[in-house]
Amino acid sequence: MCRNHRTPRSRQGRSTMKIATGAEGREEALIDLFAAAFTASEGVEEGTLVGGLVRDLLTKTPASDIHVFRAEEDGDVIGAAVFTRLTYPEDPRNVVLLSPMAVAPAHQRRGVGKTLLAHALEALRSEGAEVAITYGDPDYYERVGFAPIVEDQARAPLPLSHPHGWVGQSLTGRQMPVLCGVPSCVVALNRADIW
Predict the structure, then answer these.
(1) pTM of the prediction?
(2) Cα 1 to chain centroid, rounded
(3) Are residues 176 and 160 in contact, defined by beta-carbon separation less than 8 angstroms?
(4) d(CA 73, CA 6)
(5) Percent of the chain, pLDDT > 70?
(6) Burial class (CB in 10 A: 0-12, 13-18, 19+), 2
(7) For the chain, how are helix, strand and coil distributed in percent, rounded to 5?
(8) Percentage of the residues of the chain whose pLDDT score is greater than 90
């Protein structure tokens, strides 16, 4: 089921951006978006790696373990965020992992990512998610409520190459909890080369 959320039309008459959920029928557009965004920011090798990762996430992850949120404008996917289940076997909380997230290079610095993530986090909260964690630029993610966490508070599934990029937030309105145990992530993310 695809749910849409429209943002207001701008005063300049630009098209309206809408937020949609799910990947069905948009898989190739999503893969292309991630490959292009990461190629532009990190180079061809990283773009190829992340494009392949998104393909694996979309094709190998059970529907109950993945949530995809898309920003679209004029029928084009201009941003996307992929959340998957992160299971802490010694902790009952419902935890989601944001990985990866991208905005098309031509649409960056327009608030697309912030709008997309705010919508996604609210939707996940309403579905019972209690904690969201991601691994990325802390300066970017703090804009939507993430804060640095240490592995004593919430371990990563695999060793982190840049521990300062491990960030999380409580979705319950309470303080970020301590999550017990060594977590497991979905199969597509269980690769040392992306951590």
Answers:
(1) 0.90
(2) 19
(3) no
(4) 10
(5) 92
(6) exposed
(7) 35, 25, 40
(8) 91
Burial of 111 (0-12, 13-18, 19+ CB in 10 A): middle
Contact 55, 82 (CB under 8 A): no
Q: Decide: helix, strand or coil at residue 183.
A: coil
Judging by DSSP bridges, how do beta strands 131-135 and 95-103 pair with one another? parallel
Report the side by side order of strands in the sheet with 4-6. 4-6, 17-21, 66-73, 76-85, 95-103, 131-135, 166-170, 147-148
The per-residue pLDDT for range 8-41, each reduced to its tens digit, is: 444 444 568 999 999 999 999 999 999 999 999 9
Peptide bond into 100 cis (omega under 30): yes
Distance separating alpha carbons of residues 161 and 170, to the nearest angstrom? 24
- Kind and range of the H or E run holding 52: helix 44-60
> 162 by DSSP, 3-state: which?
coil
Report pLDDT digits (tens) over 163-173.
999 999 999 99
Contact between 71 and 78 (Cβ < 8 Å) = yes
Sign of CA dihedral 183, 187, 40, 44: positive
